[in-house]
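Illustration: Polyphosphate polymerase domain-containing protein.
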Amino acid sequence: MAVRASLRHELKYYISYGEYTHLSRTLDYVLQRDPAGDEYNEYAIRSLYFDTIFDDFLHEKISGVGNRRKYRLRIYRYSDKDIKLECKAKRGDLISKESLLIPRDLAEQIIAGDPTGLERAAVPLLGELYRLMRTRLLHPVVIVDYIREAYIHPAEDVRITFDKQLHTGLGRLDMFNPRLPTVPVLDHNLVVMEVKFNRVLPDHIRALLHGISAQRSAVSKYVLCRRFEEKEF
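Result:
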């Protein structure tokens, strides 16, 4: 069964490693650690992003189109235990995400570009994927790897994440290979911080973030990783 999240705010920042270490220590006192994290409150995320034959989703992001969607497969800790098919939608300044757990054989079928059977799926997300694969030749384009550290708070469902060690798989698409060769995308001194919440960011959490010097940015890990390809964007 697909899970559809309601529209939420998502603020993104590039921050220095020094700012990250300060904020991480502070948030660890005030917020809760993500239950998915290990003893260091970290876990590995690998996403395989899809795009159309003309890279429509890439160009929409670069052009700043207000309402857009992107599709990906996502796994954690390089394991096929939980494979998620996700569609993330942006509507102005708000985002929502639809997520569906799928078996590995279906994931491999989608990666291979085979939409057979998806047209009969009862889940709308799979039907949507089928139409895109048939009409716009949706296909996998790039693997995005990083380490995530996350903190949560029940008020307004706040979630603050630090994404570190961002790597790209370049032209490789074998997302279930734990030894997949990857290359770093960002300077080692940069960390991507994301702040997500429902309606209003609580004042005491906003105050904790007030001291950072970074400006809000339209960070896209997908775009950053695709810039390593030999093509003009």
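Reading the tokens back as a structure: The chain has a mean pLDDT of 92.
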